[in-house]
Amino acid sequence: DAKTTQPNSMESNEEEPVHLPCNHSTISGTDYIHWYRQLPSQGPEYVIHGLTSNVNNRMASLAIAEDRKSSTLILHRATLRDAAVYYCILRRGHNNDMRFGAGTRLTVKP
Amino acid sequence: NAGVTQTPKFQVLKTGQSMTLQCAQDMNHEYMSWYRQDPGMGLRLIHYSVGAGITDQGEVPNGYNVSRSTTEDFPLRLLSAAPSQTSVYFCASSSPEGNTEAFFGQGTRLTVV
Question: Which is higher by pLDDT, B73 or B41?
């Protein structure tokens, strides 16, 4: 299974952009890059996913390197509510499991 | 919209007792899975299912059994609970394609004494 590597923790100031990196050097051609986040005492929630092209949605943007060996989740204006653990996960094309790493704990300072 | 429903939310078991954690989804998803999360750790995959009648092991399957008789339900059974199984358990469901969103339940906090 392809693995992902993320920093253990990051800090941000409120209303500033946050760039959360993820390395996935062994990614295969059919792996989708997913990001989930887990707020305190809650189950994980979907943030965004992509395959090759950069993606935007109402929550965040996903920038994918041209060689697909790394990606960056971008929160354009961090709020206190964005404080969570963010997980970068690879999910293969069909009928394959999702495996979580340790994730990045994001702290947002007022 | 119920999404993924887990019951119970909290449970205390004595060592050696058995119990079943329930998970139900109303989105007609073929793919369902169970994870455990120990304090300060990420989620670890226990078992997963790609459809009714089909299950497979994840990273940490020992001590747990699953079955999938319907699309909606995916119960997790602990046959003989051990203190090492104290954890928060999450159930998830999704369509099987890799480009689809997974939905998670709110978790079951299990303590084995």
Answer: B73
Q: Where are the alpha helices (DSSP H) in chain B?
A: none
Helix (H, G, I), strand (E, B) or coil at B13: strand
For B52-73, what is each residue's pLDDT tens digit?
Answer: 999 999 999 999 999 999 999 9
Q: How far is B95 from chain A (nearest CA, A)?
A: 9
Chain B interface, best mutation among A27, A95, A105, by max B CB count within 10 A: A95
Instruction: List chain A residues with CB under 8 Å of B106.
Output: 42-43
Residues of A in contact with B59 (CB under 8 A): 99
- Residues A43-76: tens digit of each pLDDT: 999 999 999 999 999 989 999 999 999 999 999 9
**B77-94 burial, b for 16+ CB within 10 Å, e for fewer?**
ebeebeeebbbbbbbbbb
CB contact under 8 A, B102 and A46: yes
